[in-house]
Design goal:
Elements: E1 2-7, E2 18-21, E3 33-38, E4 41-51, E5 66-67, H1 76-89, H2 93-98, E6 114-120, H3 127-133, H4 138-147, E7 153-154, H5 155-161, H6 166-174, E8 178-184, H7 204-218, E9 224-228, H8 234-247, E10 251-255, H9 263-273, E11 277-280, H10 286-297, E12 303-306, E13 318-323, H11 341-352, E14 355-360, H12 365-372, E15 377-381, E16 392-397, H13 398-403, H14 412-423, E17 427-431, E18 439-443, E19 460-462, E20 467-469, E21 476-478, E22 491-493, H15 498-508, E23 514-517, H16 527-536, E24 542-545, E25 558-563, H17 577-589, E26 600-605, H18 611-618, H19 621-635, E27 641-650, H20 653-671, E28 680-693, E29 696-706, H21 711-722, E30 729-734
The structure holds adenosine-5'-diphosphate (ADP) and zinc ion (2 copies).
One zinc ion binds near residues 445, 448 and 483.
Length: about 750
């Protein structure tokens, strides 16, 4: 027997199969990780295929040294997925295969924890005889009896049953009647048992959703998109669906945007499913993550909850894949090879005959468009559970505030509502939508945002040289001193930090507890959970934070939510800015009024008429979708086009720029004059907006391609070009999460 092996070495040069001989008696299957001689060294690799013939001179073929696990680490459908990722992203196969495994598994970096077990070596037919031979040694008799069920017993367990078990055990071991062996013990990051609350009676909408979903476990068809407003009880739908899958002997994967944002959901699941559930996320220790992975692989945990990469969890006989908050950007991986976990979920579901459920209160434009085309099935849950009303939303026009002489970041309405909320002993959440220092430039008097003349995106302020730049086409303009629309001097880069808001709150509401959650205050491993717990325990009345507090949190005592600067994401230099703004505001608003008391929301904005803001205020998803979809169509943005770029990075900017320029010329040379050239709507090479990351200079070639069957041919060629030899490292990105 011979094995075709892919080396676990991320390099284009060795991205092909190598043939090794399988020594007699070594049980290998496709997907097994092995150790093989490779050049002068020993290396790890993956068995891709077994074959009878070597294919060439068998005498030159070296043997596989050992299997790293007794079982294939890679399941066959996951290997197929890796091939798919390779063909889409043009990465070496080994890098796609690595996505399927916990990183710490490679290179033997984590040790398997073992525990002593006792095994009886007496054949079953001679057990009775052996017992009678022990005369009056009752402990030995008992020990043999206990062990005679054919199972290996943990030594610890025997110690509890037989006092001083060492003596009879040593006696048996010395006579080869029993053996002590070391077996794997799995670390679990969670302890203790949680009591499951009784199942709530399902609402009509939940029942109707399940009536559509459950049959799909048996007979999978198109993916489902569940559009359920905040507080409509989507989690309960997931739980019931997973339970049905388990009844059929099938497993489940539930993807959540970020584990730290969903402690509540995990608790709900854990209380219902206990140890049958595994959790995969980046905050586990390497040992814990590895053990969780093995619990899944060995079938001890049939349900997996995890972030993006859990879409690759080795669940066999998968019944359902659920993607919660499917609109979240975190499902797009930014690291190479880039993949979209939603796309993988759909593809994996199809491959393995599993139902796929994407769900959100604010579905992505892409997924909702798929329901319009009939490619996904739409399920709607338009009401909150217990007939709780959606919160009342007020839009405050901050230009108006300025005209009335209020120069602060709190409108009079927000100030007044905060006062009432605090006096009533309720809690409030204040949300500041802020990320990084790159900010748009905005007139505080008329609301004008400076946009690129060729792209429908805001320009970004660069403090280094005091310029405005367009991240899509590279246009550069000096920073104006007067507003181009109204000539007022109140034009400036936007941006109000959480810290500044906290100081202001302390000044306005002395003595009122404020918890601030942002990148600074949540750096520690458990800081996030602690802050959330403190707020839940009412140790503060105001929770102030960034995106982090926008989603997933369920605090029944919160009656007021304020979006201090609703426009910040709207002016982000990205065509997805309206979509993201709408989603964020609807999600934030959804934090209010989840308990008995109704909720109220104050959204402060300079652009109250913008359809993303006005749409969030009325919580009318469909109206927003229609408007945004039309804009994408007329302005030629995804899903009608693809934004594609070569990202080139190198130690020196010169090398990155040269490479980008070279690639751009290649593309033009290759396609101009051909019919395919019409599909390329735009191409330009430039320094990347963030021109240096981790001490590597970055340049890129940006392209906009029409979404058309032909375009695949262009992509295939672009991928080949990306694989060429250049002074810089090159990656081809298709609709990347970020163009930074
Ligand atoms: P969503 O994810 O849709 O925003 P959740 O799943 O967080 O909503 O549910 C909102 C709240 O309603 C939670 O506190 C949940 O426990 C509760 N809930 C869900 N389903 C029911 C039900 N059928 N009866 C009563 N309460 C429910
Ligand atoms: Zn102006
Ligand atoms: Zn532009």
């Amino acid at each position: 027997m011979y094995a075709e092996i892919i080396m676990d070495i991320a390099s284009e040069q060795v991205d092909r199969v190598f043939t090794y001989e399988v020594p007699d008696g070594m049980a290998l299957r496709p997907g097994t990780r092995v150790r093989v001689p490779f050049g002068p060294r020993e290396k790890e690799g993956f068995v891709i295929r077994l074959k009878k013939q070597a294919g060439y001179d068998a005498s030159k073929i070296k043997p596989v040294l050992s299997a790293l696990e007794e079982y294939p680490a890679l399941l066959p459908p996951l290997m197929d997925l890796a091939f798919e990722i390779k063909s889409k992203t043009h990465c070496p196969l080994c890098e796609a295969l690595r996505l399927m495994l916990p990183a710490e598994m490679r290179g033997g970096r984590v040790k398997i924890k073992t525990q002593p077990y006792v095994r009886l070596l007496i054949p079953p037919e001679r057990v009775d005889e052996a017992i009678s031979q022990q005369g009056r040694a009752s402990k030995r008799k008992l020990l043999i009896t206990l062990l005679s069920d054919g199972r290996d017993h943990p030594l610890d367990e025997l110690k509890e049953m037989i006092r001083d078990v060492r003596t009879p055990l040593n006696y048996l071991v010395e006579r080869d009647m029993a053996a002590v062996i070391e077996k794997e013990a799995l670390r679990s990051p969670y302890y203790g048992h949680m009591d499951a609350p009784p199942d709530p009676e399902l609402t009509d909408e939940q029942r109707e959703a399940l009536a559509e979903l459950i049959p799909a476990l048996k007979k999978p068809g198109k993916p489902f998109l569940l559009h359920g407003v905040t507080g409509s009880g989507k989690t309960e739908v997931y739980i019931r669906l997973v339970r049905e899958a388990l009844k059929m002997g099938k497993g489940a994967i539930i993807l959540v945007p970020e584990i730290v944002l969903t402690p509540q959901m995990i608790n709900w699941f854990r209380s219902r499913f206990g140890d049958n559930m595994a959790v995969l996320h980046s905050r586990l220790s390497p040992g814990e993550r590895y053990d969780e992975w093995r619990r899944i692989r060995l079938g001890q945990a049939r349900i997996v909850i995890g972030a993006r990469s859990a879409v690759f969890a080795p669940v066999e006989n998968l019944g359902v894949l659920i993607v919660d908050e499917e609109h979240e950007q975190t499902y797009l991986s930014e690291r190479f090879p880039q993949y979209d976990a939603r796309e993988i979920a759909v593809s994996r579901g199809k491959r393995e005959g599993a139902a796929v459920l994407l769900a959100s209160a604010t579905p992505s434009i892409y997924s909702y468009a798929m329901t319009r085309r009939g490619d996904y099935m739409l399920i709607e849950m338009p009401h909150r559970v217990m007939s709780r009303p959606l919160p009342r939303i007020h839009l405050v026009d901050m230009r108006e505030e300025l005209r009335r002489g209020n120069h602060s970041m709190f409108s009079s309405l927000l100030q007044q509502r905060l006062e009432t909320c605090i006096a009533d002993g309720h809690q409030a959440m204040l949300f500041i939508n802020r990320r990084g220092y790159a900010s748009s430039v905005n007139c505080r008097k008329c609301g004008e945002t400076i946009k690129c003349s060729r792209c429908d995106v805001s320009m970004t302020y660069h403090s280094v040289d005091h310029t405005l730049r367009c991240h899509y086409c590279g246009e550069i303009r000096p920073m104006p001193s007067l507003c181009p629309a109204c000539q007022s001097p109140y034009i400036r880069p936007m941006g109000t930090g959480t810290q500044k808001v906290q100081e202001e709150l302390n000044r306005r509401f002395p003595g009122v507890g404020v918890i601030r959650m942002d990148m600074d205050t949540t750096a520690g491993k458990n800081a996030h959970f602690e802050l959330v717990d403190r707020f839940r325990a009412r140790q503060a009345q105001i929770l102030l934070g960034t995106q982090m507090i926008a989603k997933g949190l369920d605090f029944p005592q919160v009656t007021l939510v304020g979006a201090v600067m609703a426009d910040l994401t709207l002016n982000f230099p990205d065509y997805r800015a309206p979509e993201r703004t709408f989603q964020l505001l609807v999600q934030v608003a959804g934090r209010a009024g989840r308990g008995e008391d109704p909720g109220e929301v104050v959204i402060q904005t300079y652009q109250p008429d913008h359809y993303a803001i006005a749409g969030a205020a009325t919580q009318d998803y469909r109206a927003f979708f229609n408007r945004e979809f039309e804009r994408r169509k007329s302005d030629l943005y995804p899903p009608f086009t693809m934004i594609v770029r070569f990202l080139c990075d190198a130690k020196e900017m010169e090398a990155a720029r040269k490479t980008a320029e070279n690639l751009r010329e290649q593309v033009i040379r290759e396609f101009s004059g051909t019919p395919l050239y019409r599909r390329i709507l735009f191409i330009r090479s430039d320094d990347a907006p963030i021109s240096r990351i981790q001490d590597r200079a970055r340049a890129h070639v940006l392209m906009k391609l029409l979404n058309h069957p032909d375009t695949e041919k262009i992509l295939a060629r672009l991928q080949e070009m990306a694989g060429g030899e250049y002074p810089a490292r090159v990656q081809l990105e298709i609709n990347p999460a970020s163009l930074a």
